Amino acid sequence: MKYFLGFLAVITLVVVVFIIVLRGFTGSAEKPKQQLNLMDYVNSQTVVRYTVSGPVSADPKHMEYRITVGRDASTIEVVQGYQNNVIKAQTYDNNTAAYADFLRALQLQNFTKGNVDDSRSDDRGVCPNGNRYTYEVETAGETKQRYWNTSCGGGTFLGNGANIRALFQRQIPDFGKLTADISLGG
Predict the structure, then answer these.
(1) Distance CA 110, CA 120 (A)
(2) What is the dihedral of CA 9, 15, 16, 19, to 10 degrees?
(3) I need a surface site. Which of 18, 41, 81, 105 has the fewest CB within 10 A?
(4) Rounded to the nearest 5°, which phi and psi values hold at 142?
(5) Which residue pairs, CB below 8 angstroms and at least 24 apart, start in 135-138?
(6) What is the CATH number of domain 38-179?
């Protein structure tokens, strides 16, 4: 009987050690960041931004455009060089109802879904011959979200890039005219 109790004690000890070891390997992993709910920001000064950066090139040839949409305004900026020299900008009025519809559409296209792995957060130089796209949520000057992907594939963004690109472009009535003379390559 005492051999049987000793055997059970050893088995119990092995199970407890096994559980502790497994928790040690899985417990140290960072918990996934909770996805933002864009509808929480409808009545705030929060803005969402979509940026397209052209291929890596000489400073005077490097181009990008960024579209920033907020509750009160939508803005497009055409940027030249790596010093963010705005060469053209246009702002359009917006309103709460339009912003709410826009945010809901973005949410449905997974604008806030991405990989939060810090080792993948730096997109500089990735896809040097193509375009890089960034998807941001900013409130009170603080970036709440920043994901990216490229025309070469890869990145941290997990949403529907094509639909989101079209949604942002439609927020700018003169989008085609304002971007007609810039070449992003890729």
Answers:
(1) 19
(2) 180
(3) 18
(4) -105, 130
(5) 135/48, 135/49, 135/50, 135/111, 135/159, 135/164, 136/48, 136/49, 136/50, 136/51, 137/36, 137/38, 137/41, 137/46, 137/47, 137/48, 137/49, 137/112, 138/46, 138/47, 138/48, 138/49
(6) 3.30.1560
* 127 or 5, higher pLDDT: 127
Contacts of 110 by beta carbon, 8 Å cutoff, 6+ apart: 158, 159, 160
User: Which of the residue ranges 17-26, 82-91, 123-132 would you say has the lowest mean pLDDT?
Assistant: 17-26
Domains in the chain: boundaries: 1-30, 38-179
As given in the structure block, the two tokens for residue 124 are 């500089």
Q: Say what angle helices 96-108 and 161-169 make with each other, to 10 degrees.
A: 170
